[in-house]
Design a protein that fits this description.
- It is a single chain.
- This protein is an alpha/beta fold.
- Helix content is about 40%, strand content about 15%.
- It contains twelve helices and 15 strands.
- Helix 7 links the parallel strand 6 and strand 7.
- Helix 4 packs parallel to helix 5 and helix 10 runs parallel beside helix 12.
- The N and C termini lie far apart (about 55 Å).
- About 50% of the residues are buried.
- The mean pLDDT is about 95.
Length: about 400
Amino acid sequence: MSSKITPSRRTENVTYAVRDIVVLAQKTKETGKELLWLNIGDPLKYDFETPAHMVEAVSKAMQDGHNGYSPSSGIDEAITAIRNEAEKQGIKNIRDVLITNGGSEAIEIALTSLLNPGDNILTPNPGYPLYEAIVNKLEAKENQYELDEENDWQPNISDIESKINDKTKGIVIINPNNPTGSVCHKDTLLQLIELARKHNLVIFSDEIYDKLVFDGKKYVSIASLADDICFVTLNGLSKSYLVPGWRLGWAIISGPEEICNDYVEAYNKFTRARLCSNHPMQFAIKPALEGPQDHIEEAIKKLERRRDICMEILNSIDGINCVSPEGAFYAFPRLERDLDDKKWVEGLISETGVVTVHGSGFGQKPGTHHFRIVLLPDEQTLERACLNIKEYMKKL
């Protein structure tokens, strides 16, 4: 008889809280309880729709026969559109633009092209759990730095500097941030650049929510603020352009030629090895970036109203406090009682049917407890969900 197959040790620490919590939710659903889903960051699960002109562009590309492989880095018209958009944002010294299968692949190739076993990279805490999974797989170290909840969840610059060592290769920022909805202030970005300059670090800026910024605030891409260090700006269509299932992302590598070129070639080696990203879908990039942007304005208005509803109710609850998000479509309320956040979320699902995600799934300052909600459901659903949370806290 054959021996039991032993999986790779790399899988031991891989978790993904957003999806893992669905297992319990489905069991609760089987009992007949209605579920109110506040856990998945997919706008198309709610009342958002993909812009029609993007759908038409992909359909035409398929009909025109663009169903084989594309160039590894992407089609010319899409790369040009991305480069033009980046230059409008003020990004200089662009060395390459590479189109990937979603922002997730852009992140994975970016980190794989830099990190060796034993190296470390600074990542935000709280932050998106994919970074931890990739770093673990590479047998590198996730060097977590604090986001300061008392300062609108801004990166804690002194904490970052205290954690830099001779094995530190880069800094990751998620801006706007998932899960907190925070947006980095310009002075924070300038301080991060100074650290990168001083310690010869690559800055990876995950900007997948860059167009979803609230209250009329102007978004600043960190790569637009300097041109003498290496930046990898990560973005895509999934969130702002409402096509998460199309898996369209990209990386923009910018900085001085003598600093960036070897890294650019390393990134290209991986893009060539996996052949290409989805070919016909790439024809949506140019019309998305250069075509009508009405859907973004409409989405922001919806999200601002929904944020305000949630903030009013959540911050009225004894035992909960929430910093108001400035972008993306998440909020990260704090439980001010000594409660295990995962058990709290599990109890909330079982008792009320409200599905959120435990804060420990994203990372949080030791001794604090949070949960993440999405602001995507309609106003009535969000109001019901938040009122259910209020009743649940009263019972506790």
